[in-house]
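During the no-cost extension, the postdoctoral fellow (Dr. R.K.) reprocessed legacy sequence entries with the updated structure-token encoder. One reprocessed record is reproduced below for audit purposes.
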Amino acid sequence: MPETLIDEADPLAWVQRHECQADLLKALARLSPEQRGVQLLAKLGGWLPHKHRRPGKITLMRGLRRLLAMLATQAIRSSAVAQQGGLPPNILAFLQGWKPPQPDL
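Re-encoded structure tokens follow.
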């Protein structure tokens, strides 16, 4: 469901948040696809390299969201291990034997 001013407790906060998002989208549009960081965000956003097509702002935003989600997951996992001495047994069982996929190079 799209956000509206009515749903926002503070309309000024809504406007400021959307202005920041617009500034971020403008900054993403000015990036060069040759930059390593741009290539990483594009790949995380699902972009497939193509000779005549650059990754778009939506793809880069999708990649940025995915990167932030991965960082948040790692921080939460590290915190749980530090505070509780390890992960819960059911999560450990789920992760047992799991290996990340090998990147396509």
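The helical segments are 11-29, 36-44, 57-84, 89-95. Confidence is low (pLDDT under 50) at residues 1-6. The remaining legacy entries will be reprocessed before the final report is submitted.
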